[in-house]
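Support request from a user on the community tier.

User writes: "When I paste my structure tokens into the form, the page sometimes reloads and wipes my input. The last time it worked, I copied everything first. Here is what I submitted, just in case something in the input itself triggers the reload:"
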């Protein structure tokens, strides 16, 4: 008997089921302001046990891509309030993924053409900014500027403010984006982080920024409303492997055990063309981390059920399948066929490939109507 479709208590927040929607950047927010179409997109997917929003930058400095809705300006907050209302009207639970890209940005998306910032001057990753002709384009990230120690502390404050903003506009919690080669992972990484202040060097120092942000955010909105996303051994955006990578994340797991978070969310980047996260390591992490464990990466219903039933994870997270199946929960529950996703419409563009994927019931209705029309003609 599947437990995937039974309610789940996420640190006191009641989820209708265990099917979680992954954070997914869709790059459809003009001027970085969340709009009605975005609210509709989330509303359509509100039967998920939990929706984690697309990455939402905590500041202009933390932005690396055009058309990503931020969570720092008043218009952005009004926009997000519409989205949270839309999800709650359908009984959904909604966390905001709060994000700073660090070095993965481009001068053309920073204020006054400033350089992106990072733990060091090492360049890496691809940003989405304006090319020399002023046309939106994928571009190699610009060479970053090394953050001064004082500036690192300012970023802690930006995350704290973003978490308060998220709570004020109706999000049920936040997920701190510690994965996929962005700011926190750049600090965790022993090669990219070559600092000699208290944020670099030893494992404890490399983990300090993420832990400080977690603590500050927990103090302000409550630890049961705080999740953290991590990608151990992740190599997205030119993150080099380093000797104590696995141990670094186990250290974080032990630190997070002390803090009663809503969850830790691991992302296996295997589906993104990177080396997959070894299942042995996932099990080791599970044995070390005692709170709710979310896991994303190439899951289908069968694999999700297996991992939940054998206790490897608590909650399976689905990304791409949610783009094309707004009613993924109902489809999986009833073993209805799944609609194929379309990578061409993942990022940018309009309603197509975004809010025009029908639910299974809508699709059946459309086909029935078509049959009637065909019979009459
Ligand atoms: C279009 C797209 C956008 C994504 N944007 C984000 C993001 O904003 N933040 C993040 O942590 N992961 C992001 N991811 C990764 C997903 O959250 C997820 O972990 C990944 O797609 C693996 O799950 P899947 O195999 O079920 O798709 C994105 C993935 C896709 C396909």
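"...and here is what came back when it finally went through:"
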């Amino acid at each position: 008997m599947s437990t995937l479709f039974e309610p789940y208590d996420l640190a006191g927040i009641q989820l209708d089921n265990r099917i979680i929607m992954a954070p997914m950047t869709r790059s459809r927010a003009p001027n970085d302001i969340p709009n009605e179409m975005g609210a509709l997109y989330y509303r359509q997917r509100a039967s998920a046990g939990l929706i984690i929003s697309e990455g939402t930058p905590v500041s202009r400095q933390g932005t690396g891509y055009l058309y990503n809705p931020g969570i720092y300006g008043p218009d952005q907050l009004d926009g997000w309030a519409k989205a949270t209302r839309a999800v709650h009207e359908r009984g959904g639970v909604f966390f905001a993924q709060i994000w700073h890209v660090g070095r993965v940005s481009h001068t053309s998306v920073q204020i006054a053409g400033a350089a992106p910032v990072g733990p060091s001057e090492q360049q890496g990753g691809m940003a989405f900014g304006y090319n020399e002709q002023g046309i939106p384009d994928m571009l190699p990230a610009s060479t970053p500027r090394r953050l001064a120690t004082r500036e690192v502390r300012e970023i802690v404050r930006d995350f704290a403010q973003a978490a308060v903003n998220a709570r004020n506009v109706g999000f049920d919690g936040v997920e701190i984006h510690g994965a996929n080669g962005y700011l926190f992972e750049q600090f965790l990484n022993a090669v990219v982080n070559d600092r000699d202040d208290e944020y670099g060097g030893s494992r404890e120092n490399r983990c300090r920024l993420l832990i400080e942000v977690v603590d500050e955010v927990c103090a302000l909105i409550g630890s049961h409303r705080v999740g953290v996303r991590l990608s151990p051994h992740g190599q997205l955006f030119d993150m080099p492997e380093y000797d104590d990578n696995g141990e670094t994340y186990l250290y974080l797991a032990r630190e997070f055990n002390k803090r009663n978070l809503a969850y830790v969310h691991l992302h296996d980047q295997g589906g993104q063309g990177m080396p997959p996260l070894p299942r042995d390591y996932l099990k080791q992490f599970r044995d070390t981390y005692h709170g709710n464990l979310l896991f994303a990466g190439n899951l289908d219903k069968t694999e999700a059920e297996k991992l939940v039933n054998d206790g490897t994870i608590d909650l399976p997270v689905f990304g791409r399948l949610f783009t094309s199946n707004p009613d993924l929960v109902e489809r999986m529950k009833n073993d209805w066929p799944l609609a194929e996703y379309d990578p061409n419409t993942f990022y940018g563009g309009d309603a197509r490939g975004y809010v025009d994927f029908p639910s299974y019931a809508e699709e059946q209705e459309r086909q029935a109507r078509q049959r009637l029309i065909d019979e009459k003609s």
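Agent notes: The reload is a front-end session timeout and is unrelated to the input. The chain has eleven helices and 14 strands. The longest strand covers residues 50-57. Escalated to web team.
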